[in-house]
Specification:
With 171 residues, this protein is of the alpha+beta class. The protein is built from six helices and three strands.
């Protein structure tokens, strides 16, 4: 398999797109583009940003509780991330009657997070959860094949995710 060199443009191609469809509640997906990364650097960013969006926006975060209590979000809200050659994309998806208000609240939460980082206990809990999720993935043939494909395209091996010392360490 020969990989063709790839360069992801730094600028966002399109800031917003929408489609009108007959659904009960407006659905949305919000992603924040990260700088171009490949190989181990991309994998490390993928793991780091998945942990970060879980801490800030996950279903145990203060943000999610506040937004759900206000009625802007429901339990369909999810945080996730995607990684490919030349990109890492942390995402949030969900349903809301006012997705623009949700986006503005997300931006406010990111600004607040920069000023007030999470407690060490929250970070430690998310680290353990992330590690457990990766380990559980090795019990699923579809996930293992995804790990193998990511490894081939990302210039690392299928066990690299589980071997990151900063995830597995007790610090």
């Amino acid at each position: 398999l020969e990989l063709i060199p790839h360069s992801e443009p730094e600028k966002v191609a399109q800031h917003r797109t929408s489609i009108k469809m007959p659904v009960a509640k407006t659905q949305f997906a919000v992603g924040f583009k990260r700088p171009d990364a490949d190989g181990r650097e991309a994998l490390e960013e993928y793991i780091y940003y998945n942990m970060l969006v879980d801490i800030i926006f996950g279903d145990t975060s203060e943000f999610f509780k506040r937004m759900r209590d206000s009625g802007l979000l429901n339990d369909a809200f999810r945080v996730s991330g995607f990684m490919g050659r030349g990109y890492v994309l942390p995402m949030r998806t969900g349903e809301s009657d006012d997705p623009d208000a949700v986006l503005e609240e997300m931006k406010k939460e990111l600004r607040r997070f920069r000023e007030v980082p999470p407690d060490r206990e929250i970070f430690a809990r998310i680290k353990k959860q992330t590690y457990g999720s990766v380990v559980r993935g090795y019990n699923n043939t579809e996930t293992v094949s995804q790990y193998m494909m990511d490894a081939m395209l990302g210039d690392h091996n299928a066990y690299t995710k589980i071997n990151y010392g900063w995830i597995t360490s007790s610090r």
